[in-house]
Design goal:
Distance between the termini of chain A: 47 Å
Strand content of chain A: 15-25%
Largest sheet of chain A: 6 strands, mixed
Strand order of the largest sheet of chain A: 4-5-13-10-11-12
Helix content of chain A: 25-40%
CATH topology of the largest domain in chain A: Rossmann fold
Largest interface: A-B, 89 and 88 residues
CATH class of the largest domain in chain A: Alpha Beta
Structural class of chain A: alpha/beta
Number of domains of chain A: 3
Oligomer: homodimer
Radius of gyration of chain A: 21 Å
CATH architecture of the largest domain in chain A: 3-Layer(aba) Sandwich
């Protein structure tokens, strides 16, 4: 951690449209593909597998930069870091439904308190490498906070637009970390429009989810890190809170890259996309056997991070879910709130609502039989529970009265 | 991370009064010494040095349990863990005052978002080992949150008492994580009285700061981990936000244990106790050459975590500061607020007010000449900045009007 990051071989060969598979040059700025779809980064995995070993990785600091050869940044001087440590994989035996072990992967430990740090540290590092100095983004909160921190750290100007019902803590955090932030009296797509229309007059680079190719590569490290922590093995099932789905897409990409170089063998994890019943476009498309999801009208849920009515990477999410023999499922707000409460009261672990949705889904699918009690499962807690409003606690003692110690049982 | 913790040799020989040096048996429940002073845990360091090497430690997961031989827990089954990962040591070149490197050690990444997790995971593990099932604590917030989480995780009942001006987020977090919490219309010492007087009728164990011996051992891992991260070297100066001072005492104990077994050579870091001008009992005692500090009347500061008017370990703090050729210093609320703002605007790093006090002190002491611009320094950010109120950010855009893109420069 002391030194600047050492130089490393890199293996990016080109970028490829996730839909049409046409190629795009590496080391140039790109948004979406010609077909308007996300671009995926491609590597020379044969050369990569020759260049680095699991044993070599184990000697490096436990951060996401351990996986440097699997990542797109060419020059170490462009790495923009705020300490992306491995997040802990915490066994939660009291939440287990059977013999299969259950863990929470606590992504709230990353910079700015959420998994958004993984995507944004990579996207900002690549933007720096490619000469970007101004970036803009529409956000419901956590992604904007991560962009603010990494943008400032990189010496860039960042312009961030939030729907006006974004929680106060997120807006303040964005401003505190050196970004320029505006509340917009509209929805996330209105914010997206401002960003898109500003590209020419302002000259900023559009950092909207999946509209640049590198956030997926950052999120990919969730899969690399998980396999590494488990001794280059994987759990049977992964429950992932799914809004834009960058993380699910990224993890599935990681597992497949690891399989291709022979570091993972056998069955890959079943990927379960968890949504809220008030906003479940992926669940609907999954159940209807469709490749793309329709816009979800009147989206609402307590888990604001998965309130994403339309995702540009919908087909990539659905593809990962199907290829992995997983599924998409939805839980309602009551289940989410009860799951959050149960995890904290039983294990002392305070999840965020989106994380709690994964525990609610695990319970629901044990019940439904789609998950067996013998399957091991990892639940992704995507942000610290401290960013969310907790229920009041109003017991009081008056020191002017004798204390009734029989209360404390 | 996957397995339960492996068994390990342990080396505790006895406990010793920090003041009178009389001995107390290991593996029994203890509060303060007969002299009413904190007990320090003593190890057979010769045997420890034979049993474990730096190379062996490097193969273990990057958590505080890596240092198992330096810690008091005898049986692995008693370890109560929520994922105590190594906290990152983040270089902050834009905050540097000269050629000496400056790092922030970001303790906000620990469970419950503060360094209190280190002390409480150790104290709760030892309480479990010694058969305790009910614990109680007075707290201004973060320590109570950590006890709530670890107590629940251990299957204990915890009873927590806060002054009624404790921030709402802390009280709610304590309750959410399964503890019983009460607001008390008094100060922290009134809360402490309730805990002390409840010992007999309720039978709970008193977890007040330094009133049990193991929180220091948990905080000691800050020193072990820092030296490990720096390749078994140390910085020239450490700035530490000092309330009860458990961490400063613990780190100094760690450095001395490492020196005794030969893992650290040469000069140990100068320990700087940072307080607020509105509550600076250690600074006063340091400047007056005293061994103990007087109670500070009318304590006040924005950095509530260091608003501790009287510390039972005062003499241990002052001893560490003097032995290390460090000093105690105070900064005012304006300096703290300005330092917090500067760090986040320059480096994208949101400190907590207590952490920001260390940066304010670093700047002040560069100016005063007590720290040289060539000295390397570590600033301890003791909690996530997200637990504290941030300044409002009120820019808005009306989508019913044309957007003025000339705003975004």
């Amino acid at each position: 951690m002391l030194d600047s990051f050492p130089e490393s071989q890199t293996f990016v060969t080109h970028l490829e449209c996730g839909m049409e598979h046409d190629h795009y040059a590496a080391d140039q700025l790109h948004g979406l593909s010609k077909a308007g779809k996300p671009l995926l980064v491609k590597y020379d995995l044969n050369a990569l597998a020759q260049a680095v070993s699991k044993e070599e990785l184990a000697t490096r600091p436990a951060t996401l930069w351990r996986y440097r050869e699997f990542l797109p940044v060419r020059k170490s001087e462009n790495i923009v870091s705020l300490g992306e440590i491995h997040t802990p994989l915490i066994p939660v035996p009291r939440l287990q439904g059977g013999n299969g072990s259950v863990w929470i992967k606590d992504e709230g430990r990353l910079p700015t308190g959420s998994f958004k740090a993984r995507g944004l540290c990579m996207a900002v590092s690549m933007a720096k490498e490619l000469g970007v100095t101004k970036v803009a983004m529409p956000t419901n909160g956590n992604a904007g906070a991560a962009l603010a921190a990494y943008g400032t750290r990189a010496g860039m100007k960042s312009f961030i637009f939030c729907p006006d019902d974004t929680p106060e803590i997120n807006v303040r955090e964005i401003a505190a970390q050196g970004a320029h932030v505006w509340r917009v009296n509209g929805l996330i797509n209105d914010c997206g429009k401002i960003v898109a229309q500003g590209k020419e007059p302002v000259g900023w680079f559009d950092f909207s989810t999946l509209k640049e190719p590198y956030r997926i590569e950052g999120k990919k490290t969730m899969g690399l890190e998980l396999a590494d922590q488990m001794g280059w093995q994987v759990p049977d099932v992964i429950f992932y809170p799914t809004g834009g789905g960058t993380g699910l897409i990224g993890m599935w990409k990681a597992f497949n890259e690891l399989k291709e170089i022979g570091w993972l063998k056998g069955k890959l994890p079943r990927m379960v996309a968890v949504q809220a019943t008030g906003c479940a476009p992926m669940v609907k498309a999954y159940e209807e056997g469709k490749e793309h999801a329709e816009l979800w009208e009147d989206a609402h849920t307590v888990a604001a991070g998965i309130r994403v009515p339309v995702a540009v990477g919908d087909f990539l999410i659905l593809r990962a879910v199907r290829e992995s023999e997983g599924f998409a499922t939805a839980v309602n707000d009551e289940q989410i709130t009860a799951a959050l409460d149960e995890a904290s009261q039983k294990e002392g672990f305070l999840m965020c609502p989106e994380g709690a949705a994964t525990y609610a889904a695990y319970k629901q699918e044990l019940e439904s039989g789609r998950v067996s009690p013998d399957e091991s499962a990892v639940l992704f807690n995507c942000a610290t529970g401290l960013k969310y409003e907790l229920p009041p606690a109003d017991q009081a003692i008056d020191i002017n009265q004798p204390v009734d110690y029989s209360l404390f049982v």
